[in-house]
Amino acid sequence: MIQPRTLKGFRDHLPAQALVRERVLDVARRVYRSYGFAPIDTPALEYLEILTGKGSEETDKQLYRFTDHGGREVGMRFDLTVPFARFAAQHVNELGLPFKRYHMATVWRGENTQRGRYREFMQCDFDAIGTTSPVADLEMVLVVHDLLVAIGIERFKVRVNDRRVLAGVLGRLGLAERATGVLRSLDKLGKATAEAVAAELEGQGVAGPAVATLLEMVALAGPADEVLGRLHDMAGDGPGTAGVESLRGIVAGAAAAGVPVGRVVVDPGIARGLDYYTGIVLESFLDDLPGLGSICSGGRYDDLAGLYTKQPLPGVGASLGIDRLLAGLEELGRGGGPETPADVFLAYFGPAHLADYLKIAAALRRAGLAVEFFPEARKLGQQLKLASKRGFPAALVIGGDEFQAGTAQLKNMASQDSTIIAWHGDADALAAAVRVALGRPGSPARTSG
Amino acid sequence: MIQPRTLKGFRDHLPAQALVRERVLDVARRVYRSYGFAPIDTPALEYLEILTGKGSEETDKQLYRFTDHGGREVGMRFDLTVPFARFAAQHVNELGLPFKRYHMATVWRGENTQRGRYREFMQCDFDAIGTTSPVADLEMVLVVHDLLVAIGIERFKVRVNDRRVLAGVLGRLGLAERATGVLRSLDKLGKATAEAVAAELEGQGVAGPAVATLLEMVALAGPADEVLGRLHDMAGDGPGTAGVESLRGIVAGAAAAGVPVGRVVVDPGIARGLDYYTGIVLESFLDDLPGLGSICSGGRYDDLAGLYTKQPLPGVGASLGIDRLLAGLEELGRGGGPETPADVFLAYFGPAHLADYLKIAAALRRAGLAVEFFPEARKLGQQLKLASKRGFPAALVIGGDEFQAGTAQLKNMASQDSTIIAWHGDADALAAAVRVALGRPGSPARTSG
How far is A181 from chain B (nearest CA, A)? Predict the structure, then answer.
């Protein structure tokens, strides 16, 4: 006998979890599409040189790699950005530019699992490449906003900043050369105290007054106009001004698109650790779970695929951290749900009325309801116990007596209340009555194809 | 510079393909759910011993396997059945029985690619375990039927048989001991001629009259009643009779559930090569592409997870071969489609009216339409050329003059006809008019969450 078990850092998704995940993926797909992002897919396995080309020590170390049957060195993708860069370089002529894609797929990293991280997880990326338009930047913010609203989250903030503003301020402080280290330290705020970050900056040789300015900058808060005015003073002319103006456009554009005031916040404390961002950077947080971290993050980059093509591909993109979001929904008590996707549990009393049950199940499905016709003629109590455990909203009970009387018992599994429906052998009439009882009036939602 | 390329046997999915695939997956998910099958997911990587436990020489040879960072021998899943067996053994107490699941995911096999096979492909399995009920068998047939109809295929057959019938006939011919070899030979019919199969059977030592009976059996065709009557004569009493009765129930049940007569066909020629089927077996074929092979196949097995648990888990399952189906749709001229998921291309004439464009795009999305607002203020002809190449149904053109006049031009990209819409600055009125022009009257389909 072989012990059934999963590898460390890997996990199964049972129906209750899988249903919540499918719902969120479905919402993400709908929102991405509503902005014209098109789906793509790439292989899980790539030539090793494609994946290690970026030369990040951390990802290289975490890479699942091996030699395949043909002696090729291959690796499993660790994110969706590197495969997209390879994809874009390979297909740019077919695709045309600008090109907007989404990609929702699994990635693998042999990470240390002690921090509650998984070695297999999903990413949901969306990017617009081949454009430097401010419209593309703005759309990132709008997509993140619409996505969180569509998932049913009301209390959240999309926090935006611009790397050029940071560069402008650092330039005026004479810290342009040390930008990477300084930004990395500033990025720790929130996790570390201001004092600790100040000490770290001073340890890098940043002078006291400059440290004070930097800490003032990242702490700026309040109405966007005021924050942007102060940032303009701090960043001076040049790229810093362009960054401030860009942020002004984001705030105004979000308002024009109908985003409620206060949902999009200019936050000079958002730096994003990654070196390759060059313009807008954004993160998003749930008001009720500030410690969860950013749910959806991204920014503008100068060139996606410089390793694979000479054609410059500037772009802007972001990624929904779906596993983090699902953990957040669970923490908010909104992760639990039924173990079944079906609306109705149809109890079974045996083969005498099998044809009738089949007709009823077919009529319910025609009416747009998902129905599980229980295959075993167990005792009714046992059937209903399983239906209850699995979270069916309703159970339809039609035994021999009911068939004779032309009635059916519809049991609300939450309240345990029963309704008697008279259907007189007309399965479609029964299905229509069940729809109404489940609060689904109107025409069935089900469409073919 | 690193050459951007994919591994042999692996491929990218560009938007046009990815959109068709997403549509089919969506339909499959909806149909599976309408019967109460619940989603699950399992890791791409499993302990090697889990995957090699079945001991099939072919799959073992094709397995992508390696040693991970922790020194564990691991492999990438080559199907969804073995991981499901491991999953079921591990979680059966949590899940309860019977348990119905679907699993749509990628699998990997280091196959010979010369036959046009890919080394990475998707499977869409659905199984009901923990039940021997004929209802569960019947539902396989109904799901396959509903699935093909929902995808938009009208001309197809679901072909069913029962392994017990085959066993009964073989028993009466004294060939019970040689069943595996005989079934394997019979399974070649369709690809090979009757003469070739007869020669192969005789080569196995099957006597001439028995070969004739076997060939008569697999060629039986016509009304189900007649085929079943003749099969009953050939199979005799015992398990053969049970198989015939079971098939009778399938035919009657499908009719009761509303499946048109002739769509479900009893075909004694369906054997399915795999040894583990013990009851119903089914395949399905497109009438217009008989050479494509079966699109959706499966059957009943005695025990899913005997390698991992002592608890017997009988079940019945089938799998949609989505890559084969997509190839078939393409061959039927129904694979091509737009490269964009969006309904409307919104042309851009520059920042002067940016806020207006954003309001219009937001109103279109509120009205349930997907809209790509083009981020670059290129010449209109260039914008429309890209919109046409990408297959947008419609383009909305609103330049300075139109804004002044309170009008908009809606261009049907297929006919190149334009309609003028008067909207007088009311973006929601414009969106409603666009919906109607696109043939989407009624309330918007978009619902939150």
Answer: 28
Helix (H, G, I), strand (E, B) or coil at B105: strand
Does the distance separating the beta carbons of B29 and A19 come in below 8 Å?
Answer: no
The confidence band for A236, taking pLDDT boundaries of 50, 70 and 90, is confident
Q: Look-up: residue for tokens 């007709």?
A: A359
Q: Is the pLDDT score of A270 beyond 60?
A: yes
Would the CB atoms of A18 and B41 count as touching at under 8 Å? yes
Provide the percentage of residues in chain A whose pLDDT is more than 90.
86
CB B150 to CB A342 under 8 A? no
Task: Closest CB to B12: pick one of A91, A136, A372.
Answer: A91
Closest of A98, A108, A160 to residue A132, by C-alpha:
A98
How far apart CA A114 and CA B80 sit, in angstroms, is 29
Q: What is the pTM of this model?
A: 0.95
Say yes or no to pLDDT of A56 above 80.
no
pLDDT of B58 reads 84
Q: Where in chain A is the domain with CATH 3.40.50.800?
A: 344-437
What is the maximal distance between C-alpha atoms in chain A?
90
Q: What is the pLDDT of residues A355-366, one digit of tens each?
A: 999 999 999 999
Q: Among A47, A95, A135, whose Cβ lies nearest the Cβ of B375?
A: A135
Residue appearing with tokens 């430097």? A132
CATH 3.30.930.10 boundaries in chain A = 15-331
The superfamily (CATH) of domain B344-437 is Anticodon-binding domain (3.40.50.800)
Please tell me which residue of chain B has the smallest CA distance to A389.
Answer: B96
The CA distance from A405 to A389, in Å, is 30
For residue A444, what pLDDT band results from cuts at 50, 70 and 90? Answer: low
Contact flag A41-B18 (C-beta cutoff 8 Å): yes
According to the model, what pLDDT value does residue B55 have?
Answer: 65
CA pair distance A116, B394, nearest whole angstrom: 47
Burial of residue B215 (number of CB atoms within 10 Å: 0-12, 13-18, 19+): middle
Shortest Cα distance from B70 to chain A (angstroms)?
9
Query: What CATH architecture does domain A15-331 belong to?
Result: 2-Layer Sandwich (3.30)
What count of other Cβ atoms lies within 10 Å of the Cβ of residue B423? Answer: 20
Record: contact B4-A309, CB cut-off 8 A: yes
The ipTM, to two decimals, is 0.94
**pLDDT-derived band of residue A336, with 50, 70 and 90 as boundaries?**
confident
